[in-house]
Amino acid sequence: MKRRPVIATLLLLFAFTATARDDRPRGTAGIFDYYVLSLSWSPEYCATTRRDDELQCARPYAFVAHGLWPQNERGWPQDCESRERVPDATINRLLPIMPSKGLIIHEWRKHGTCSGLGADGYFAALERSYRAIRIPDRYQRLPQTLTVDAARLRSDLLQANPALRSDGVVLQCAGRYLQEVRICLDRSLSPRACGRDLRNRCGDSLVLRPVR
Ligand code: U2P
After folding, report:
1. Whose CA is nearest to atom 8 of ligand 1?
2. Environment class of 39 (CB within 10 Å of its CB; exposed 0-12, middle 13-18, buried 19+)
3. Please, which residues bridge with residue 170 across strands?
4. What is the Å distance from ligand 1's center to 123 Cα?
5. Within 10 A of 47 (CB to CB), how many other CB atoms are there?
6. Which end of the chain is more exposed for a tag (fewer CB within 10 A), N or C?
7. Which of 93, 119, 96, 121 is CA-nearest to residue 107?
């Protein structure tokens, strides 16, 4: 009879630690398998998420850098221990491709700290990987909404970037709307296949909001 409270306490303790672990999965800097370069379709972000981000949403950006995420074959490390802050000069250098100071600082804290590279090294890697991707002209200036087959978007990206692997590009949508293109890179920033938990989250046909 007295076992019940003990079992209940153990269950509660287990539930609490499991939740705490999920809420704050702290990684260890430098321990990860590969990177995901995440490119955000800025018109989608600005139309749906935050309108108070003046710089990003006041200008006609197309794909912007969302982040370079240290990734494991399954899951990813985040919020690794670091007291380093992103220098202003680094922020200013990044703004043309990652047009939000808040995002730059957030990405450093959540993902960059796990790269083991330090802020300058991390953002240099992010910039190098972003600039290595060629965005086809069709998606740079988009005056009108575009409905496109997911297969067509993928093949346009692969054609413009022959080094990319088809199993190393993943699309992310909200409903039919394209949010992101995620590109998997090895630790030297060369293209590689994505881990199994990175899945396409778009249907066969998707919509890109116009760049304005
Ligand atoms: O997908 C929602 C948010 O989860 C974070 N994410 C997602 C997939 C992944 O492989 N790695 C990863 O970090 C991103 O969070 P953020 O960096 O924006 O805080 C993504 O936006």
Report:
1. 198
2. buried
3. 182
4. 17
5. 14
6. N
7. 119
Euclidean distance between CA atoms 65 and 98, whole angstroms: 5
* Inter-CA distances, 5 with 2, 11, 14, 15, Å: 6, 10, 14, 15
Name beta bridge partners: 172.
180, 201
Catalytic residues: 66, 107, 111
List of residues 6+ apart from 133 with CB closer than 8 A: 37, 39, 161, 164, 183
Rounded Cα–Cα distance for residues 209 and 134 (Å):
20
What is the arithmetic mean of pLDDT over 97-120? 97
Residue pair 137/211 in contact by the 8 Å Cβ criterion: no
What pLDDT does 53 receive?
62
The counts of H helices and E strands in the chain are 7, 6
Model pTM above 0.85 = yes
Q: Is the CB of 77 under 6 A from ligand 1?
A: no
Q: Is 76 in the pocket of ligand 1 (CB under 6 A)?
A: yes
Q: Is the CB of 110 under 6 A from ligand 1?
A: yes
Q: Please state the rounded mean pLDDT for residues 40-47.
A: 96
Q: Is 76 helix (H, G, I), strand (E, B) or coil?
A: coil
At which residue do the structure tokens 């993943």 appear?
A: 170
139/145 Cα distance (integer angstroms):
11
